[in-house]
Amino acid sequence: MKDILQIIREADSVLIGAGSGLSTAAGIDYGGESFQREFKEFIEKYGFRDLYTSSFYDFATQEEYWAYWAKHIDFANTGREGTELYRKIYEAVKDKNYFVITTNVDDQFYKTGFDKDKIFRVQGSYRYIQCSNACHNKLYDDKDMVEEMLKNIDSDLKVPQKLVPICPVCGENMEPNLRKDGYFVEDELWDKQSDAYHHFLEENQEKKLVLFEFGAGFNTPTIIRFPFEKFTLQNQNWTLIRFNKDTSTFYDLGERYVPMNGDVTEIFKNI
Ligand SMILES: [Zn+2]
User: Fold this and answer.
1) 12-16, 52-56, 116-120: lowest mean pLDDT where?
2) CB within 10 Å: which end of the chain, N or C, has fewer?
């Protein structure tokens, strides 16, 4: 196995691409014991099996919808601190010229020291809500709202009607800022960070860049997994390191590809 720190030391810049597998490895548990414990009443009422499938449930009322989502948002993001694994990755790259692109909506990169100007959060965040009709491109911080809701969920698993958020512009329902359909809101920060990402790619064309890809699978491969391979194919100075159980590639990248299918927490443990 190649020495990760050695690879980083020899690089001019580091591009991190992270998918859901990284948060799973970090211990954010979408279907195991802590989900079973925290969502016990919801599992009994709705038959939920894991946090991913439950997020597609069609709730009859907004009061029930928000009781569930307050719990979900708190569990995966606003009520959770930065995890050890993300901190270790930060420690490994912090002195380099780095940039992060992620499909994760749990904001772990924001909680573990990474510079917020160097993170492109493509698919949204649990931390923010938006108009469900996408009538305007502003996001609203939901942390306080979620805390208030959690204190007020009744025995029917509903929040009081007065806590249900309504779009201040058009009066429609609100929803978490997650890309699931054509109504996903990309606000000014999203545009700014998208530009920053493309600028980073541009300015590193002639540099020795290492692409660290963590847990990016085939749910949305066109955001990280496929482009990272293509970038590496096109640039002789760039090397791709893929942390995944499935280290298959579409292109033959020769020596500029390093597959890592071991336990990522083990690999970063001693950093
Ligand atoms: Zn609206």
Assistant:
1) 52-56
2) N
Beta-carbon neighbour count of residue 230 at 10 Å?
12
Cα 136 to middle of ligand 1, angstroms: 6
User: Terminal CA-to-CA distance of the chain, rounded, Å?
Assistant: 16
User: What is the 94 CA–ligand 1 centroid distance (Å)?
Assistant: 39
State how beta strands 257-260 and 238-243 pair.
parallel
CA of 1 relative to ligand 1 center, distance in Å: 52
pLDDT at 4: 83
- Residues at Cβ < 5 Å from ligand 1 ion: 131, 133, 135, 167, 169-170, 172
| Pairwise CA distance, residues 161 & 165, whole Å | 9
In tens, the pLDDT along 252-262 reads 999 999 999 98
* Contact (Cβ atoms closer than 8 angstroms) between residue 172 and residue 131: yes
| Fold designation for 1-28+82-123+179-271 | Rossmann fold (3.40.50)
**Ligand 1 geometric centre to CA of 173 (Å):** 8
With 0-12 / 13-18 / 19 or more C-beta atoms within 10 angstroms meaning exposed / middle / buried, residue 169 is exposed
Q: How far is the CA of 122 from the centre of ligand 1 (A)?
A: 21
Residue 163 alpha carbon to ligand 1 centre in Å = 17
Q: What residue ranges do the domains of the chain occupy?
A: 1-28+82-123+179-271, 30-79+129-178
Could you tell me the pTM of the whole model?
Answer: 0.96
